[in-house]
Amino acid sequence: MDCVGTASCREVLGQEPVNMERLELLRNVCEDASLKNVTYSGISRFVLDRIFVSDKYKILFCQTPKVGNTQWKKVLIVLNGAFSSIKKIPESLVHDHEKNHLPRLSSYRKPEVKKRKWI
Predict the structure, then answer these.
(1) What angle do CA 94, 99, 102 make, to 5 degrees?
(2) Is residue 104 classed as helix, strand or coil in its secondary structure?
(3) Beta strands in 17-109 (DSSP E)
(4) In the chain, fewer beta carbons within 10 Å around the N or the C end?
(5) pTM check: above 0.70
(6) Structure letter (DSSP) for residue 20
(7) pLDDT digits (tens, 9 = 90+) for 11-63
(8) Distance between the two ends of the chain, CA-based, in angstroms?
(9) Residue 37: enclosing H or E segment and its boundaries?
């Protein structure tokens, strides 16, 4: 990137330490031994209803309102193959859980949830 001295360059370079801190935190949480044995039984139906699944990419997305939820749902809709681009997804479809092709973790039976070791 050729942005020497510009405000946008300083902003991008200033994000590097923040991004590194976030990656380190994520790495530490993922390596936390106490979290490795979390089981299905401890997860309420309320939570399972808010977790969307992409088996192909082994992604579980927990919807969190007002923090990019709509955009992430669009990404998952594309990854799941329902549309070729996020630009082609009608806004009305994103939050229509009957039509958006995003399976919820709550739609799986207990053994199917358990087999997803990447939970």
Answers:
(1) 70
(2) strand
(3) 51-54, 59-62
(4) N
(5) no
(6) H
(7) 656 677 877 888 888 777 777 666 666 555 567 888 888 889 998 888 888 88
(8) 37
(9) none
